[in-house]
Amino acid sequence: MTHHSKGMDGRQVWQKLITGNMRFVQGLFQGRNLLDLRSTLTKGQEPEAAVLCCSDSRVPAEIIFDQSLGDLFVVRTAGLVLEPTSIGSLEYAVAHLHVPLLVIKGHESCGAVTAAVHHPDTDEGHITAIVKQIAPAAAQARSTGKTGAELVELATCQHLKSVAAALRQESRIISEALEQGRLELVVAKYQLHSGKVDVLKATFM
Ligand SMILES: [Zn+2]
Questions:
Q1: Ligand 1 centroid to 10 CA: how many Å?
Q2: Is the pLDDT confidence value at 40 over 90?
Q3: Which band of pLDDT confidence, cut at 50, 70 and 90, is reported for residue 5?
Q4: 115 CA from centroid of ligand 1 (Å)
Q5: What are the backbone dihedrals phi and psi of residue 49, each rounded to the nearest 5 degrees, phi first?
């Protein structure tokens, strides 16, 4: 399986990402020759992981994991909501780019989750579609009796697990790759304060 991400399996790629995140936490970014890299990458891409994360300007996967051009295939939607085109983008990364790792990375203080918690019945253009998709996780979190920021964080964890389950259920390409061991899945949450990415769930743990 050497065509996978420079010989790395999903667990090794995750180790690389976590090592990069530790550099980010400490503010020690890796120096890179982006001009050389840009030129090399004109021949094609071979990203090591697909990442589904929020559109929030504070959470870009490449910076948080201290990765570079060509490393990550990233899909971003507000609140990590799924729709056919975002699922298709992830499927492309799995089926054609052979990424061995799929990361679902949510974050602390997510505005989309906060909206679903506090205004589940909002009717504002297409924003409604985002809130609706997170609303079940928000309702489930609310049933625990938690309030405020604690409620939002619980709803976020619940939503991230639902996104992982929905991806497996709605995408045969992704579920088959997981079953055949060609793909590992990590569900993680980014802490705005520390800059750290915490694992909530991983297929190899
Ligand atoms: Zn967000």
A1: 25
A2: yes
A3: low
A4: 10
A5: -155, 150
Which H, E and C letters describe 39-50, residue by residue?
A: HHHHHCCCCCEE
Cα(81) to centroid(ligand 1), Å: 10
Separation CA 174–CA 142 (nearest Å)? 31
Q: How far is the CA of 56 from the centre of ligand 1 (A)?
A: 5
Ligand 1 center–CA 101 separation, angstroms: 22
Q: Which tens digits make up the pLDDT trace of 122-161?
A: 999 999 999 999 999 999 999 999 999 999 999 999 999 9
- In the DSSP assignment, the letter for residue 36 is H
Q: Is residue 1 pLDDT above 70, yes or no?
A: no
Q: Which CATH number fits domain 5-202: 3.40.1050.10, 3.40.50.1010, 3.20.20.70, 1.10.260.100?
A: 3.40.1050.10
